[in-house]
Structures are given as structure tokens and as C-alpha cells.
Amino acid sequence: MHPRVKPALRRAWRDRQSVQFGVTAAHAVLVGPVDTATGNLLDLLDGTRGIPLLRAEGAALGLREGQVDGVVERLAAAGLIDDVAAGGPAADALRSRAGVLDRLRPDLASLDVVHPEPGGGARRLAARGSARVQVRGAGRVGATLASVLAASGVGRVDVLDGGTVEPWDVAPGGMPADAVGVRRDAAAGQAVRRCAPGRAPRARAGPAEPGGDGGPGLSLVVVAPRDGLAAYVPDPATAEPWMASGVPHLYAGVMEATGVVGPLVLPGGTACAGCLALARRELDPGWPRMLAQWRSGRRAGADGGAGACDVALATAVAGLAAAHALAFLDGELPSSTGARWETALPLLDWRSHHLVARRDCGCGAGGEPDEDAEGDVASGGLMPHDTMAG
């Protein structure tokens, strides 16, 4: 072990005998009492020394036998210690690619803060390299989201969309101005490769057919259509291949002046697009009639028109959706799991709405239908938590 105090956590002496690691309330840890010799030992925990050398230098500082090991164990238990050699073979392979690792050092530092165990950040960052994500949509939200995922170390990001890049598709982090007139799938693939650290595998790009490639090896599908209606009111039929093959999928988009992220659907485990459709129909009997008109009519942004999609809102949606996707790939269940985050201009106060899995939906997440449990069936749908994002 080559222990290192996690460098992302800034250190400050609160008083003569206590040290605080970290600035923010979410991550700050107070350690004490700390005497002078132990304080000097903290400076030596920089990852360049193994435990035997640290014991020798600790003895020179006046530390008793076993005290160095005790300090390291205590700091590790508090989530403050990383091991620069830990993480497994995949992490070792990542460390050998110096240029790639340099691009990803801020991401690694962040993962080290979030995951307390030594080597946890390196292991998760290396695992991202073997993940495959499909982004369906290459507009202001989708192209930016795909680029962020690639820049974060996701090994393969496939972008599916049709048509050519229009002037209104251009956005910071997404489609560049010189891509106007280029096929959207090709331009999105170029954007992904441009943002990926090192030489990423060539992304598969192609037109987005309904259902499309829900194929083997997919870690996640992100549905980020240029037509925001398809994200705000997702079509259960489009998700059928993912539900059948068990592929997790996340919805994100902008509809009018409202941005949505979620739900993240875990097939058979959380509420799906079908659950949402049933709840909408139950709450508003006129909704299916209006939805049929919206879907069958000319859709702004999908057939040559520029629909409402504020660039700052689209960028915020893409960033939040990418963060939720990365959290899922890193082994966590983000707050969009079975829920939806929604915000609207001009106030931009993010609010969470919980989605209840329906027992009358064929996805199975709500359990087997029970004719005697009408109350359970009626409880499904959008339920506001009135939770605001910080």
C-alpha cells in the first residue's frame, strides 16, 4: 500500500489539535486530537512511500511503534486515504496511459471524494472505459450529453439520429458551427471522438429507428430526442426492446421551456414509460386524445422547424442527465431512478417527482395485477415530492 491523503480534500487546522479535511458540508471530516509529530506525518502521506518507509520516517519524527499504522487505518476508516496502486488490473492499465489519465485526473479526484475506500475512484474510472452507452438524439441536449459522457471516460458512446445538422442544433459542447449540413449521426460521432481522452473506439452512429439497437453489451440507453415531446411523454412502444432485453434507459430533454431528466428505468424494477402513460390517462381522461394530436401533427424541431429549446436550459439538462448516467455506470442509483427531475424557465427550480410502478402495467415492476387492489393501481403515476435541487 502507498497511502495518500486524498488531494481533492483541502486541509486546514481548525485549532492546534484538530485538522479539517474538506471544505463543503457534504465531504468535510474533522480529525483530532493531532499532535505535532502526527501532523508532520500527514505531510508524508503523498503516495510516494510504502508502509515500511513511512514507519521508518515516523520513528524519526518520534512516533511510537504501531502509531503510523494506526494513523493510516484511522484516516482510511474516515474515507480520507487513497492507495495510488489500488483498483485492480484495469486501473493499472489506465495508469499506464499517462496522456489519458492526465485528461481524467479531475474526474478521478472527484470519484476519490465520493467513494471512500482506497482505490475506489480508480476502479470506477477504469470501469467506465468498458461501458457502452447509446444516446438516441443528436440535438442540443443529446449531442452535448454524448460529448460529456465521452469526456468523462466512457469507453464507447454510440449516437443515433437522422437528418443533417441544422443551424439551431449548434450548442457549446455539442454540435459545432462547421457541422451544419453534415449528417447528424456522423457529426455527433466526430464530436464524441473529439472529446474522448486518448483514442476512443470508433463510435457506432446511425439513424434512430424505433426500438433500434438495444443490442448486447449496452450498459445504458439515454433517450434525448430533438423533439422534446418524446422525452416529456415517452412512448412505451419505443422502449419495448429495452424492456424485453433488460437494458436500463434514461430520458432527458427540453419541451417548450421545461427541462426534464428521468426517469431512469430499470426494467422490471422501477416505473417505466408504460406506468407513466397509464397514470396520465387516469389523471386526465382527455390526455390520450391530445397526445395523439401532438404526436401525429407537425412537430417543431423534428420536421425542419426549430422548436423552443433554450441553449442554457438544454446545456443544464444535458449536464444533469450525464451526471445521473455516470452515477449509474459507477454503480450507484441516482435520484432519477424511478423518478423525474423537472425545471422550467425562468426560475429554474429543479423539482423531483416520484413515479410509482403500476400494478396494471405489463412491465412487472408493480407486481402482479390484483383486481381486489384497485387502490394500489390508482396510486400510480407522477407524485410530486416538492424536492428542490441544491
Could you provide a short overview of the structure?
This protein has 390 residues and is an alpha/beta fold.
Structural topology:
Layout: E1 3-5, E2 11-15, E3 18-21, E4 29-31, H1 36-44, H2 51-60, H3 67-77, E5 81-83, H4 89-96, H5 98-114, H6 120-128, E6 132-136, H7 140-151, E7 156-160, H8 184-195, E8 205-206, E9 220-223, H9 229-232, H10 236-245, E10 249-255, E11 258-265, H11 273-283, H12 287-296, H13 311-329, E12 339-344, E13 351-356, H14 374-378, E14 381-388
Helix pairs in contact: 4-6, 5-6, 7-8, 7-13
What is the CATH top level name of the largest domain?
Answer: Alpha Beta
Range of strand content: 15-25%
Gross CATH architecture of the largest domain = 3-Layer(aba) Sandwich
CA-CA gap between termini: 37 Å
Unreliable segments (pLDDT under 50, ≥5 consecutive)? 201-211, 372-390
Derived from helix and strand composition plus strand pairing, the structural class reads alpha/beta
The major sheet is characterized as:
9 strands, mixed
Characterize the overall form. Answer: elongated
Mean pLDDT: 88
- Number of structural units classed as domains: 3
The CATH homologous superfamily of the largest domain is termed NAD(P)-binding Rossmann-like Domain
Note the quaternary state here: single chain
